[in-house]
Amino acid sequence: MSTQLLTYLFVGSSFALYIGIAIWSRAGSTKDFYVAGGGVHPVVNGMATAADWMSAASFISMAGIISFIGRDGSVYLLGWTGGYVLLALLLAPYLRKFGRFTVPDFIGERYYSQAARIVAVICLIFVSFTYVAGQMRGVGIVFSRFLEVEVTTGVIIGMAVVFMYSVLGGMKGITYTQVAQYCVLIFAYMVPAIFISIMITDNPIPQLGFGAEVNDGSGLSVLDKLDGVLLDLGFSAYTEGSKSTIDVFAITAALMFGTAGLPHVLVRFFTVPKVSDARLSAGYALAFIAILYTTAPAVASFARLNLVDTVHNTAYADAPEWFGNWESTGLIAWQDKNDDGIMQYGAGAALSPSKPSFDGNTGVHGERLLTNKPTSSVNEVYIDRDIMVLANPEIAGLPGWVIALVAAGGVAAALSTAAGLLLVISSAISHDLLKKTLLPKITEKQELLYARIAAAVAVCIAGLFGIYPPAFVAQVVAFAFGLAAASLFPALLLGIFSKRANKEGAIAGMLVGLVFTFTYIAYFKFVAPELNSADHWLWGISPEGIGTIGMLLNFSIAIVVSRLTAEPPQSVQDLVDNIRIPSGAKAAVDH
Length: 591
Hints:
- 68% of the residues lie in helices and 4% in strands.
- By secondary structure, the chain is mostly helical.
- It folds into two domains: 3-303 and 396-580, Sodium/glucose cotransporter (Up-down Bundle), CATH 1.20.1730.10; 332-383, no CATH class.
- The chain has a two-stranded antiparallel ribbon.
- Mean pLDDT is 80; it is low at 584-591.
């Protein structure tokens, strides 16, 4: 059976499974739609949370970024994993004890203000749509290569599938769909990693193969060989970082605190029966996530080694099949700068502008000709980082069923997170904006209808982001984390641990944090991208890390404004005490 047919079979079967689960678990009430009825087992919720969390950025892009920037890519691993510890300790159990449907619901009640609720909805929408942009780009990349359709067509197919199980099933449908998606994506990630680890190091455990010797008789470890190969090609050593210490710290912190403020992750802890289950869910999720995250560095290093071996100094006429397959998607390209028919891969940009644009003709060697101008560097090969994990099985020459499996896994990773994000957007609009603010008299049936309409509209907007993506998947997602850290996290943390925090402080802090961080990112990424370098950044902090400064601004302003204005009502202060004190603890002390 051909790889193409296997891909259709694997991806089609997974779609049928997801839609079948959505129909089986169709939401019949707002509680089903928002929090899956509140009765999800911690292990099930942990697996669903892991799928919700391990988005296209984790599955598709994280190892790709690590493979290209080496040690600096560790910020994604440290930040995203460390954030889950914060989530389990500081937020999850307390938000579950509060017992509401959404993050804006908590902020609106805790800060006794409809204005605070609306600001939280605005922050949530900014964060969620930034995040979902990365997921839909991931869907487009997978479909453009493996289903051999245009990126736009692929995004539309993804939109249709997400629409089916998020709009029909709500959180109930999404929860059980995400359990299936976790199984698909983790199997799809680990199988090729194990195969390639055996091929390169004879070790079947990728995490151990990462530190083992290469089986080419050189006696070098994987990292030593990779350092030598890249230095020979003009790159910096793989194990040496180029980012400044302050930028590494800022990006890691933004990712960590952003994790603890992401609304689509936080809402998962409203779905379990008890407060203790929320903490257990976070623990199970961390274990499920660790399987992929501890494998990613090995996948990244293996992929970079295989890439150099199969591309550099290879005649284009003899190029491996995978190169031509990905070239047709526009995510890899070769420009013969010295007319020798040999692909030269090395340091420096191959094209200007960097994204290839094909003119529809072929050159004397059969390559697709570009309208881009060649740069002065010796590098002739453009490679989109986001293809590294997806192309890895093809580069390594693995069987067709493994390639098809990776395609199904990439789609599962992107769709699982996209569904979670679309749900929090729809619930914020229908529950917090309409039911709690603008239309308080609507019935539960009407609220459920509005939630589904909001989800449908959000799917369409998300599709546009997928068709016109702003950056690499992991970079787009990093911006979302920065926005979450700068806007929602301080309001949530102060709301739980500070009785003095009031509505004026929370509103001022969220607005300043969001506006500052969004403006900084937008300026360097869209308004003046030519200035996007350490020479022009504030204190040397990149747009990916600026959320840390936004968070500190938020905390500072929220605390100062709260001290200068009236303290919260006594009922709210009692609510804060009740959230933090374990059930039965006060009675035991009184006794």
